[in-house]
Amino acid sequence: MALHEIWPQAPLYTSVYDPKKAKWAKVFNVIPSWLQYIPFAKNHHQLLSLLTPHAFRKFDLSQYELVISITSAEAKTLSLPKNVKHICYCLTPTRYLWSQKANYEDLGLRGRILKISSPFSRMLDFSTATKINKIISISTYIEKQVYKYYLRESDVIFPPVEVTTEKEAIKPLINNYYLVVSRLVSYKRIDLAIKACEKLHRKLVVVGIGEEEASLKKLAGKHTVFAGHLTERELAGYYMHCKALLFPGLEDFGITPLEAQAYGKAVIAYGRGGVLDTIIDKETGLFFHNQNETSLIRAIMEFEKSTFDSKKCKINSEKFGKTNFKRQFKQYIEKYMNEN
Fold first, then answer.
1. Domain shared by 81 and 37, yes or no
2. 112 CB neighbour count, 10 Å cutoff
3. Tens digit of each residue's pLDDT (9 = 90 or more) over 116-133
4. Beta strands of the chain (E only): which ranges?
5. Distances (CA, A) of 260 to 43, 143, 312
6. Which pTM value belongs to this model?
7. What digits encode the pLDDT tens for the residues 235-255?
8. Looking at CB atoms within 10 Å, which of 83, 114, 291, 323 has the fewest?
9. Is 165 inside any structural domain?
10. Does residue 196 form part of some domain?
């Protein structure tokens, strides 16, 4: 949406488009690919990952001077004339081909298909990355991943995080608790937060839903509360009244640590990934350096002996606001186009 505010006339090209699910996109002139006409594509587009690169390559973008792809997968596989510049805002190198290849290949039939097609798909993905004029990474962690997998230098512009803390929050009935706000999926490592808080006899509120919900509830004891899906006002209340946010997963960037800081709350986070950009260690949060229960317990105990300034947390979160992003991104694009 921030890019739409910079270039409101620019259309949005995408593989498939479901107006009901992507309501945010209604402000765009959305142009879907031929995959849109496959009956199940809107709801199961992930099954078409082998066809998606071809769909993006079939777009005729020759009328533009510049194309910006925003992607973690196939949207960068464009076929462009030499006079059309391509800048990729890279959310992450394609996970199922690189950093999480083994995990994806364990996913039943789709995994077996990915395993067979992987050598060709990796070659295409790497070749595509070499042809992009400029790559912008969303964090210094992704900058390193881009170099690791694509052998490309990239620049870093952090994505915008807008938190409206003035909304009328609904105060939760629970108090003196730690908070997790996340999809309940395995790589988020919510299990570590539950185990640590149960062992320390600390209250924990888990906000979110996902495929791991049942197994996490079995793991939880009397100190853990699952709040499920919340309204914005309810979530604001949980942020405002928590002791700190627990963030035990490895993320490419991570939005919730900045949301917590916007409410003046410190974050206890696993010290890898995007949080190294968004949290100031021992000032707006604490890092634990081994992704296990013991390391997190030590960090919680250290946090409880420390003092954190809520104003510093809020000031840090403001650096990642939409205004800064729009200014940086627009200046970057204008500078590149003027020089080329």
1. yes
2. 12
3. 888 888 999 999 999 999
4. 12-14, 30-32, 66-71, 85-90, 134-137, 155-156, 177-181, 203-207, 224-228, 245-247, 267-270, 285-288
5. 32, 25, 12
6. 0.90
7. 999 999 999 999 999 999 999
8. 83
9. no
10. yes
